[in-house]
Amino acid sequence: MIGKLKGLIDSYGEDFVILDVGGVGYQVHCSSRTLQHLPSPGEAAVLSIETYVREDQIKLFGFRTDQEREWFRLLQTVQGVGAKVALAVLGTLQPSDLANAIALRDKAAVARTPGVGPKVAERIVTELKDKAPAFANVDPAVVHLAGAVDDQRAPRPVADAISALVNLGYGQPQAAAAIASASRSAGEGAETAQLIRLGLKELAK
After folding, report:
1. Where in the numbering of this chain does the Helix-hairpin-helix DNA-binding motif class domain appear (predicted)?
2. 2 Cβ contact list (under 8 Å, min separation 6)
């Protein structure tokens, strides 16, 4: 199995690159984001590779980092997500943003991917929610709160405060982060109005 290729960029196709490794040209399929970051033809490049072997073909998928390749594998553990959809998601969201979106249950961010509808986006954030926090760079308290709100386990004032900020036009992840911070400073038992006021102060920083 091929795990990594190092060579010279020969040429580009719509969704692939030909990488010349010692005179052999490998056709490597990549996300649009990866293709945009690769150098010009004739220049050196290194790609982490995922090899697919089928009865009628061998297909190579290339990634700029091992972490991106890991997300490619993880995404395909979700029902209804194949290689094409996984590449499309990684073309829309870089790994850290994808991890944050899943950790915060931000279905809308994942659904921005062409070809990914609300149902598939929901399956991605639901089925990968336990794996994303390890890769995410958001406050664990915010991840916990986003999960509690999504599962309808959050205290009523907290849920109402987040809902109020969302109604004011803020995104769910922004609102959850602001109210998580507000809850910490206000302490347990804070009323909805106080949380909204503190949350708006956080968002104004």
Report:
1. 73-92, 108-127
2. 26, 49, 51, 60
Q: Does pTM top 0.85 for this prediction?
A: no
Full pLDDT tens readout for the chain, 205 residues: 788 999 999 999 999 999 999 999 999 999 999 999 999 999 999 999 999 988 888 899 999 988 899 999 999 999 989 999 999 999 999 888 888 888 778 888 899 999 899 999 999 988 988 776 555 555 555 655 665 656 566 778 888 888 898 888 887 777 877 888 888 777 777 888 888 888 888 888 7
C-beta separation of 50 from 90 below 8 A = no
Is there a contact between 135 and 96 (Cβ–Cβ < 8 Å)?
yes
Q: What residues contact residue 146 under an 8 Å CB cut-off, 6+ apart?
A: 103, 104, 105, 106, 172, 173, 176
Nearest-angstrom CA–CA distance, 81 and 147: 23
